[in-house]
Amino acid sequence: MKFFIDTANLDQIKEAHELGVLDGVTTNPSLMAKEGITGEQNIIDHYVKICEMVDGPVSAEVISTDFDGIVKEGERLAELHDNIVVKVPMIKEGIKAIKYFSEKGIKTNCTLVFSPGQALLAAKAGATFVSPFIGRIDDISSDGIDLIHKIRLIYDNYMFDTEILAASVRHTMHVIECAEAGADIMTGPLSSITGLLKHPLTDIGLEKFLADYRKGNS
Ligand code: E4P
């Protein structure tokens, strides 16, 4: 499974990259705003900075909701860097734009996906990635991981190339459950990746090994 980090924070992207396990980055307008990145040129410059830090797909989301606007914005974003993936919302105009982009060879990430039907439509339109938001489904007392299982089954039934990018991952258990469910990629905060390192028996075991070494070598 590939690991993407879901942030626009350059320090966190750097930390995940230095760990050696980072395959890509996802951003969205809320994450950009959280880092105080506003204004068209600043937003564009920030995407380029991220692309130069990570050798992998970097999702940049369009703001337009009409076909012409999505296409214009998406084409401009795609020209910024080879790593850019145009993130398009799961709406009627978005699906039309994904079809258009797929015919032009422009990579897309269909975002805000909450049902198997939406994921099927995204794959039919030729999306490179589909982003089911598992955390937001859990937030409303439903089962986000179950959606990953259903999409995996549908995509395998028809051998769709669209990659399942489990999004809105909030913690390490989500990462593990997404891996069990066969998600191709997960995108989550840095803590969801570094949390995988932790086990109390690892800490206790290491402390004992080092103490025993010190006893025999002091
Ligand atoms: C996906 O690409 C989104 O940016 C993201 O995963 C949303 O996560 P959230 O529900 O934690 O905001």
UniProtKB/TrEMBL annotation:
TM annotation in the entry: none
Leading EC class: transferase
Domain of life: Bacteria
Pathway named in the protein's UniProt entry: Carbohydrate degradation; pentose phosphate pathway; D-glyceraldehyde 3-phosphate and beta-D-fructose 6-phosphate from D-ribose 5-phosphate and D-xylulose 5-phosphate (non-oxidative stage): step 2/3
Compartments it resides in: Cytoplasm
Sample GO molecular function, one term: transaldolase activity
GO BP of this protein: carbohydrate metabolic process; ketone catabolic process; pentose-phosphate shunt
Catalysed reactions, as listed in the record: D-sedoheptulose 7-phosphate + D-glyceraldehyde 3-phosphate = D-erythrose 4-phosphate + beta-D-fructose 6-phosphate
Pfam (any one): TAL_FSA
GO CC annotations, alphabetized: cytoplasm
Record EC number: 2.2.1.2
CDD domains: Transaldolase_FSA (cd00956)
Catalytic-site annotation from UniProt: K87
Keywords: Cytoplasm, Pentose shunt, Schiff base, Transferase
Purpose: Transaldolase is important for the balance of metabolites in the pentose-phosphate pathway.
Family: Belongs to the transaldolase family. Type 3B subfamily.
Protein name: Probable transaldolase
Lineage, uppermost ranks: Bacteria, Pseudomonadati, Bacteroidota, Flavobacteriia, Flavobacteriales
